[in-house]
Amino acid sequence: MSATRPPEGARVSDPVLQVRNLRTEFAVRAGTVRAVDGVSFEVGRGRILGLVGESGSGKSVTGYSILGLIEPPGRIAGGEVLLDGVDITQLRGDALRRIRGARIAMVFQDPMMTLNPVLKVSTQMVAAIKAHDTVSTEVARQRACDALATVGIPSPEERLDAYPHQLSGGMRQRVAIAIALLHKPAVIIADEPTTALDVSIQSQILAEVRRLATDTGTAFIWVTHDLAVVSSLADDICVMYAGRVVETGPAEAVIAAPRHPYTAGLLASVPSEHVPGSRLPQVPGAAPVLSALPTGCSFAPRCPRAAAVCSTPVPVQQFEDGRTALCHIPITPPAR
Question: Which of 219, 235, 265, 306 is deepest in the core (most CB within 10 A)?
Fold first, then answer.
């Protein structure tokens, strides 16, 4: 059995990916910036984890770090990323390339980061298959066609012979997801893949992703700033702020009764929760500069609950329902 294959008898609920105290740093003129600061979470087989936060929170860098896509002046400064028990942060060269795409894959926000505009879809998908499997072109083409059908693309045989520019934005994104699925990976990291799409296409893709997770057992890490998307898609939520995880828990529980003031602020600003035309509440201020974070809680300067204790090191509060919050003064849910 390969070291990166799931253990025999693994259950759907078993963690397939465990991120432990991950730290990613970038060298800048002002010194060293820690864009990912002690991030820990796990995701089980067939489950979808929503990795949520505003721009600059570190969520995308976390995704790139997991895949080993950080290059100088950035570096992974510490922590572990365990894929079926193997720390992939220690893999280099061919060993890393063998699992990237085959066991863990990524879908980018812009599908043209995945697709070459001057090559047919078939050429690109066949090449992706042959990069990891020794099969004939005919077999690879049939697998590519099946993958397009799996993500709901009509007339997949015809789409194989199209160039990317001949497909709509939603269709290109489905192709990118199909490429990520070619080798039935254990984990797919999706970095805001539906942000640029209209609502109807977005909802179709989200429904396909939910079905794929259930049918294939592939775990998804869905990186987004959009809590409305997460509320309808994710099983679990991990909220990030200034490079740190500030709240985790089952999606339904976090959405219904957030524990961290930052999560509550994000939820309060979701347009669908307010009367059309009314002024939306906002989280006051702006995200901090990572090279000049305040002492203690990074969110304290923007927090309506901040007190003197918030300038001291922040504990991770553990709750009976398995949720966590990085907060001195977490929100107490209303009594039932």
Answer: 219
Domain containing residue 307: 14-44+53-103+190-200+226-271+288-321
- Domains in the chain: how many in total? 1
Give the full edge-to-edge strand order of the sheet including 219-224: 104-107, 187-191, 219-224, 48-52, 236-241, 244-250, 324-326, 316-318
Read off φ and ψ for residue 308, nearest 5 degrees.
Answer: -60, -35
Run of H or E including 279: none
Tokens 């990166």 appear where?
4
- Model confidence, pTM: 0.90
Decide if 151 contacts 183 (C-beta within 8 A).
no
CA distance 37 to 62: 10
Closest CA to 243 of 105, 65, 80: 65
Nearest to 153 by CA among 107, 109, 204: 204
* Segments of the chain with pLDDT less than 70: 1-13, 272-275, 335-336
Q: How far apart are CA 152 and CA 37, in angstroms?
A: 38
What pLDDT score does 109 carry?
Answer: 87
Tokens representing residue 23 in the block: 């730290």
Has residue 141 been placed in a domain? no
